[in-house]
Specification:
It contains nine helices and eleven strands.
């Protein structure tokens, strides 16, 4: 590794996390050719290929994975040193990468963003709407909101921040008793809301669902279009003028919301600010749910 430029690690990490030169360039604020040049420079110094290229994607080689792991350790050490040297670390500045399922990102977090960004002008939040669980340990994200008690990323700090209650919703123009269920595809059969709907279909001798999807947003749009009824989060569906809740009985399904943070980042001001914001967002949802129940 003679003559290796440690600053190249930033470029290696950015390509690994974005899986493209263009995405890494946007993250680092440079042009794409600069990223490509720095990766080539790092590979030349190391004498090994760090990435293999497939259409539209960069995938790390075995040597690349080893280098990425080393780069992540260096990154964490630098961040820890910044906190130690600065002492209080009171300024919430820089980038925070937060991931959750698309429905939570699009319908809950994005509408609540103006308040956060108005209070912290130097904060930059990257919201990653992703149905799969990104790894905090591998630094695919800094923070994650999961809809179940975490079973992976054992090193991450986890905290329950709220819950989403579900109820049956249908189009406001339709008779729910005549509607079939709009459900998730078979690969998502273990979701609590999917299991409940499957039980209802068996109990009422319903046939196979005519529409199956892999995304909650698609279910919302299908229900609004009158294609069927489905189990949806009350906090989201109650605000849709084209939807109506079917019955007022207690929610048949609830999903816990868990906030996860990489342990090496928890003392950074920008992380603490985003944590506090997320807690306040879901506290507000809880208060609204309580008021609606009165």
């Amino acid at each position: 590794m003679q003559g290796f430029n440690w600053n190249d690690l930033r470029f290696v990490l950015a390509v690994a996390r974005r899986q493209s030169l263009a995405g890494a360039a946007r993250q680092l604020g440079v042009n794409e050719s600069t990223v490509g040049r720095r990766i080539a420079h790092a590979e030349q110094r190391l004498g090994a290929r760090l990435f293999e290229q497939s259409p539209g994607r960069y995938h790390p080689t075995e040597a690349g994975r080893a280098m990425i792991a080393a780069a992540e350790r260096v990154e964490l050490e630098v961040q820890a040193a910044e906190v130690a040297v600065s002492g209080a670390d009171t300024l919430a500045a820089g980038t925070v990468r937060l991931t959750s399922v698309p429905l939570v990102v699009n319908r809950i977090l994005v509408p609540a963003l103006p308040r956060l960004l108005a209070d912290h002008l130097q904060l930059r939040l990257e919201l990653i709407a992703e149905p799969r669980d990104l790894s905090l340990t591998k630094r695919e994200a800094d923070m994650a909101l999961r809809m179940a008690r975490p079973s992976k990323d054992a090193r991450a700090i986890a905290r329950r921040v709220g819950r989403l209650d579900y109820a049956v919703f249908a189009s406001s123009q339709a008779d729910p008793d005549t509607l079939p269920w709009i459900t998730y595809e078979e690969a998502m059969a273990e979701l609590p809301q999917q299991r409940w709907m499957a039980e209802q279909a068996v109990h009422h001798h319903s046939g196979p669902a005519p529409v199956q999807v892999n995304d909650a947003e698609a279910i919302i749009q299908g229900v609004k279009a009158g294609l069927g009824k489905s189990l949806l989060p009350v906090a989201i569906a109650d605000g849709e003028p084209d939807l109506k809740r079917c019955g007022k009985e207690p929610a048949p399904v609830s999903r816990e919301l868990w906030l996860m943070v990489h342990p090496e980042l928890r003392n950074l001001a920008r992380i603490r600010v985003v944590m506090d914001w997320l807690i306040s967002v879901f506290d507000e949802l809880t208060r609204e749910r309580t008021n609606d129940a009165k």
